[in-house]
Specification:
Keywords: Glycosidase, Hydrolase, Signal. The protein is of the alpha/beta class. It has one domain (about 35-310): Inosine-uridine Nucleoside N-ribohydrolase, Chain A (Alpha-Beta Complex). It has 14 helices and nine strands. It has a nine-stranded mixed beta sheet with strand order 3-2-1-4-5-6-9-7-8, sandwiched between helices. Helix 2 (about 45-55) runs parallel beside helix 13 (about 250-260), helix 5 (about 125-135) packs across helix 6 (about 150-155) and helix 6 crosses helix 9 (about 190-200).
Length: about 300
């Protein structure tokens, strides 16, 4: 009888050990955010820093990168090289409609140094709409450049565009009692597209200049650039090609807000885009959520923690 009990207890112990081992080797939890990043990477440096944060975050499933405005192919090459050399070469890159006049990209040399044999970039509009149909009400479209691709998506297939879960935009400048707002680059670069997006009715969160003037000082730069990883190596190379001193990480706030919503509290507002490209608030029914003030210390704590992690 005692022997039977011992065998029974031993069997239970084996089962518990097996369950523990299984739990330790179980697949990681699915990412909580499925996103597409629409970017004008290659001009200012903040697009690259935003993309890097997304790549270093397990809670983000980056479905693809689409490029907007000017020389969209060179922008796509830059994004593709970042993805490849950071171990994410399977993430698709698609090109938006090229516009004139194309701007000279500050990081063009980095973009050109890539093997493009067998590479054909799909249309950004076709790619994004296909992903939205595949994942209805699940995709957050993170727009950190001019809104040309989004406007083209609305023109092409407004019904599918409305299947987005949310649009997250870095753009605009909201006037305050003490500060007059000016037209901001991402909005004024394609005013017609911005007007379509802001009146689309799709849920939208906007991070204007008010909350995104996040300057990466010398101490933080050194901390990142000293880190030995493919991603920080690329950020270092792109920084020196960019050729200025202190980056402002406007675009990275869009990604940080997905990871830590409290980093930039939102206020529901009615905002429209006027004929000059200004984002104009009014007292009407809110159509967007806007972050006017960010917690800068929390942002940089999160950013450095993610970028410096050896295993995201």
């Amino acid at each position: 009888m005692h022997r039977i009990r011992r065998i029974h207890c031993f069997a239970i112990l084996l089962c518990l050990l097996a369950q523990t081992a299984q739990s330790q080797t179980a697949a990681p939890a699915p990412a909580s955010h499925q996103i597409i990043i629409d970017t004008d990477i290659g001009d200012d440096i903040d697009d690259a820093f935003a993309l890097a944060l997304a790549l270093q975050s397990r809670d983000i499933n980056l479905l693809g990168v689409t490029t907007a405005t000017g020389d969209t192919k060179t922008r796509a090459q830059l994004a593709l090289r970042m993805l490849r050399e950071s171990g994410h070469g399977s993430i698709p890159v698609a090109t938006g409609r090229a516009t004139r006049p194309p701007t000279t990209l500050t990081q063009e040399d980095f973009a050109k140094d890539i093997d493009l044999r067998g590479v054909r970039f799909p249309s950004a509009v076709d790619f994004a709409l296909a992903q939205i149909r595949k994942h209805p009400h699940q995709i957050e479209l993170v727009a950190i450049g001019p809104l040309t691709n989004l406007g083209d998506m609305i023109d092409r297939d407004p019904a599918t565009f409305h299947l987005l879960k949310r649009i997250v935009i870095m753009g605009g400048d909201i006037p305050t009692e003490t500060e007059k707002a000016l037209p901001e680059w991402n909005i004024k670069n394609d005013i017609a597209a911005a007007q379509k997006v802001f009146t689309s009715g799709v849920p939208m969160t906007v991070f204007p200049l008010n909350s995104t003037r996040l300057r990466l000082d010398a101490e933080k730069r050194k901390t990142i650039f000293r880190q030995a990883s493919p991603l920080t190596y690329m950020l270092t190379a792109l920084y020196y090609q960019w050729g200025q001193e202190t980056p402002t990480l406007f675009d990275a706030m869009t990604i940080a807000s997905l990871l830590l919503p409290d980093v930039c509290p939102i206020t529901p507002m009615q905002v429209s885009v006027d004929e000059k490209g200004s984002t104009v608030p009014s007292s009407g029914t809110p159509n967007v959520d806007v972050c006017l003030t960010a917690h800068e210390d929390q942002f940089f704590q999160l950013y450095l923690q993610r970028i410096l992690a050896k295993h995201p």
